[in-house]
Specification:
Shape: elongated
Helix content: 25-40%
Strand order of the largest sheet: 3-4-2-1-5-6
CATH architecture of the largest domain: 3-Layer(aba) Sandwich
Oligomer: single chain
CATH class of the largest domain: Alpha Beta
Largest sheet: 6 strands, mixed
Structural class: alpha/beta
CATH topology of the largest domain: Rossmann fold
Number of helices: 16
Strand content: 15-25%
CATH superfamily of the largest domain: P-loop containing nucleotide triphosphate hydrolases
Radius of gyration: 27 Å
Number of domains: 2
Number of strands: 18
Length: about 475
């Protein structure tokens, strides 16, 4: 554990000392290894709060236990003198052979500079962490001390005391949510004229394909929708190779003869979505959009068409995070499905639309029984260890999932299973998640270049003129 030459090569003036708040480690256990060549300091209060939060089956408790294991591995075999000098921090997995990136320091003596009682009254864990950061700033003039916290109020307190504080940014998928992949691209008006000479076209099983070449193709993605502003025909990217692409004319689900369980697409994005949802070669589809854009209705219609008509899947499974909009109503009685029923209002509302309206009361009742046998509601809490084979899995309200939870869910997919993620990143209810750190943003960005994944951002609300006006003006 001796200091390496790589450590000594880093200029002291460029080294930073990051004081980590407890919530950073609760949110991302690997945060210990994400500060490159800089040093990390853990106040004793952080270790105390981790100890209090380690029990339970929640995601936070699991993260805390993982942090404890990381710390135990780092401190194993180290003497008191080595701990005082700082423990070398390795890089993340896959960085074998690289030198230590920074050092991990623990609080080894009492806090010398406490927070003034007349400025911040009371004695809270946050004040201990602030006091530790103030002491370090005085003791380590060679390093820039920065407090890192997911707690906005703690960062405000730090700024009042003159401490530099930052949010934890390493969990962000994108710097700006406006850069998120939309799943559709507008072609320039002269696209076909400019590519006419090298254009190659053919038909296969009633489907029309084109092979196009050009430098702009380097920015395309598999299964991306292509359109021109004034043209009715839309396309989808089927193959990409260097500066060459194979695109296909999309089936027009806006026409009544191409309706899916009685549902027709009302705009271009919905047509893209139905093509992705009905494509057996695409295993993962994500749909983003505000309330009323048709995410759940389209996913259910495509699922029912493939489960009951095409027999491609055995059943539809729907799940979501149980985060209430208002005050919680307490524990709910009944089985797992009965407990989840209050959270599945969107499912019930859309099934009413999909059930045939002209078959009479008995016909609607029979259809409702058939649908209830093919659509299963499952709780997110019991997904670990499960494997879904030949299922159509819909994850609703996916914006409230962390990237780790999203990975846990998607890896449940067995052979023949299709996963659909629905959500609106403007309506995140989970603490410490934002538009750039949501698991839904994470999977949209990570799956955009996979040949068997597809994404569409739905732009237009189709619920009613009242709902559309409220969405835009309230």
């Amino acid at each position: 554990m001796a200091e390496t030459t790589a450590d000594l090569a880093i200029p002291l003036a460029d080294r930073r000392l990051f004081v980590l708040d407890t919530n950073v480690l609760m949110h991302d256990p690997t945060a210990l290894f994400r500060f490159q060549e800089h040093d990390i300091h853990l106040p004793m209060m952080v270790l105390e709060e981790l100890d209090h939060a380690k029990k339970g089956l929640s995601e936070v408790a699991r993260n805390v236990r993982q942090v404890s294991r990381f710390l135990d591995d780092l401190i194993a075999g180290a003497s008191k003198e080595q701990i005082d000098l700082g423990l070398p921090l390795p890089g993340l997995a896959g960085a074998r052979g690289k030198s230590a990136s920074g050092r991990l320091f623990f609080q080894t003596r009492p806090i010398r500079l406490s927070v003034p009682a007349n400025l911040l009254p009371g004695n809270t864990p946050d004040h201990d962490i602030l006091g530790m950061a103030l002491s370090l700033r005085q003791d380590r003039p060679d390093s820039r001390v920065t407090l890192v916290s997911k707690d906005i109020n703690l960062r405000i307190k730090a700024a009042i005391l003159g401490l530099h504080a930052e949010d934890y940014y390493n969990d962000q998928t994108l710097d700006d949510v406006n850069l998120l992949y939309s799943g559709a691209r507008e072609l320039p008006p002269d696209f076909w004229e400019s590519h006419g000479k090298e254009l190659e076209s053919w038909k296969d099983s009633g489907r029309t394909f084109y092979r196009v070449r050009g430098p702009e193709i380097a920015s395309w993605h598999p299964n991306q929708g292509l359109f021109q502003a004034d043209a009715e025909t839309a396309y989808i990217v089927r193959q990409l190779r260097d500066a060459e692409a194979v695109i296909e004319i999309l089936k027009d689900h806006t026409a009544a003869n191409h309706a899916v369980w009685g549902i027709t697409a009302r705009n271009r994005e919905q047509n893209f979505a139905l093509n992705l949802l009905l494509d057996p070669a695409i295993d993962f589809v994500s749909l983003l959009g505000a309330a009323g854009t048709g995410k759940t209705l389209l996913a259910l219609a495509a699922g029912l068409a493939q489960t009951l008509d095409a027999k491609r899947y055995r059943e539809i499974i729907m799940t979501r995070v149980t985060v209430p909009v208002g005050e919680d109503i307490g524990f709910l009685p009944g089985t797992e499905e009965e407990k989840m029923t209050p959270w599945m209002g969107a499912l019930m509302d859309n099934l009413e639309v999909l059930a045939p309206q002209d078959s009479g009361e008995w016909g609607r009742a029979a259809t409702a029984d058939l649908l209830s046998n093919k659509i299963k509601i499952r709780s997110l809490n019991f997904m670990r260890g499960r494997t879904f084979q030949s299922k159509y899995l819909i994850i609703d309200e996916a914006q409230n999932l962390t990237p780790k939870q999203m990975k846990t869910l998607i890896t449940r997919a067995g052979p023949g299973t299709k996963v659909i993620c629905l959500g609106n990143i403007a309506q995140i209810d989970t603490p410490y998640l934002s538009e750039t750190t949501s698991g839904l943003t994470y999977v949209v960005d990570r799956f955009k270049d996979w040949p068997h994944g597809g994404h569409v951002t739905l732009r237009r609300g189709e619920r009613s003129r009242l709902a559309e006006f409220a969405s835009e003006h309230l």
